Amino acid sequence: DAGVIQSPRHEVTEMGQEVTLRCKPISGHNSLFWYRQTMMRGLELLIYFNNNVPIDDSGMPEDRFSAKMPNASFSTLKIQPSEPRDSAVYFCASSPQGGGNTIYFGEGSWLTVV
Amino acid sequence: SQKIEQNSEALNIQEGKTATLTCNYTNYSPAYLQWYRQDPGRGPVFLLLIRENEKEKRKERLKVTFDTTLKQSLFHITASQPADSATYLCALPVSSNTGKLIFGQGTTLQVKP
Fold first, then answer.
1. Which among B23, B96, B100, B108 is the top mutation candidate for probing chain A, defined by the most A β-carbons within 10 Å of its own β-carbon?
2. CB contact A55 to B (< 8 Å)
3. Which whole number is the average pLDDT over A14-42?
4. Which of A42, A45, A104 sits opposite B100 (nearest CB)?
């Protein structure tokens, strides 16, 4: 299996610009997660989907962040407008089912907002 | 809310020794606990899952214990090797009926030859 695929791997953008991060989960997995990792705050869960439906978005920091999962094989995390404090590594992960199972992470999207 | 504490200081040990990493949590006892390994520039990779009714679990040179009374899990790597150098994260479900996992900050292990 190809694993969780994220794009872009690296992005540098100017403050105020829109950023869109993309994720293709492992085929057959019905849970998808977006995490953000920084040195200060560690790995934080932003949102997770089950069967393409957002279940918990309580970790989304503010309205500038939005996530969609139009189908079982694709999800996006959008930041609009971006700010320097959004600089972080954003991980997408998927899991075969809702609880008690391994979460498989992608390699991350490294975002720098200048 | 549930909180996870891992030793933020790096652990430096000599090759061949046993590394022991600690994960403490507050509040409710989770149904299970997981350990992940993260290498620089990579995503976390699952290592082991231990359930609340299991005291200990082993996988090759790895051993995990789970003490629900102390609210603590210990992660051991025996006969450590330089290739074991990485950051190790523990993770817990927020509640029993969700796949929502929260992660500790991780402990960086450095194994010196």
1. B100
2. yes
3. 95
4. A45
Query: In Å, what is the CA distance from A19 to each residue of A6, A86, A95, B66?
Result: 14, 10, 25, 41
What percent of chain B is modeled with pLDDT above 70? 95
Residue A77 in contact with partner chain B when CB distance is under 8 A = no
Q: Do A56 and B89 touch (CB under 8 A)?
A: no
Residue B60's φ and ψ, nearest 5 degrees, are 55, -120
What Cα–Cα distance (Å) separates residue B72 from each residue in A97, B6, B103, B104? 26, 10, 14, 12
Residue B29: phi and psi, rounded to 5, are -90, 125
Q: Are A26 and A1 in contact (CB under 8 A)?
A: yes
